[in-house]
Amino acid sequence: MKKFLIVLTMVLASWKGIAQAAEDSVKLAVNKMFLAMKNADSTSLRSCFSTTMVLQTISRNKEGNTVVVNESADEFIGSIQQLLPGEADERISFETIRIDGPLAIAWTPYKFYYKGKFSHCGVNSFQLVRFEGEWKVQYIIDTRRRVGCE
To answer: Distance between CA atoms of 102 and 96, rounded to whole angstroms?
Structure first.
């Protein structure tokens, strides 16, 4: 019976280790994107995205209504490419990561600094897909606000 409990404990510990390694690989992919953004490295940034990546932001229009704004990967990469390294600094924390085979989600609250000054905060919701062993960002939708950013 002792041997069974030891083996069971080892198996459960290894599963937790595998799950943690998978979560770490998702974090690494997301952090790679933000590092490329901070470094204004368009080549590295593009390598973070799938070829069909979708980027959206939830905001308010002039009338105060909630709207979803679409931006292409090329537009986003182009805007980052125009910056100097360090000008776009998005500081995230990982709140939730879930993985099912080749699909992962990451929920990352953030604070965004532009040229060293606080700009806004919000939450990113990432969908990532693992292609040939490498996580790629497939979809990002985020919120942006200037209040409640303690």
So the answer is: 17
The DSSP-derived string for the chain is -HHHHHHHHHHHHHHHHHHHHHHHHHHHHHHHHHHHHHTT-HHHHHHTEEEEEEEEEEEE-TTS-EEEEEE-HHHHHHHHHTSPTTSEEEEE---EEEEETTEEEEEEEEEEEETTEEEEEEEEEEEEEEETTEEEEEEEEEE-BSSS--
Q: The pTM is what? A: 0.83
Domains in the chain, please, with CATH? 2-143 (3.10.450.50)
Cα(64)–Cα(61) distance, rounded to whole angstroms?
5
Query: Sign of the CA dihedral 97, 127, 29, 142?
Result: negative
**pLDDT tens, residue by residue, 100-120:** 999 999 999 999 999 999 999
Cβ atoms of 22 and 99 closer than 8 Å: yes
Q: How far apart, in Å, do the first and last CA atoms of the chain sit? A: 53
Contact 125/142 with Cβ under 8 angstroms? yes
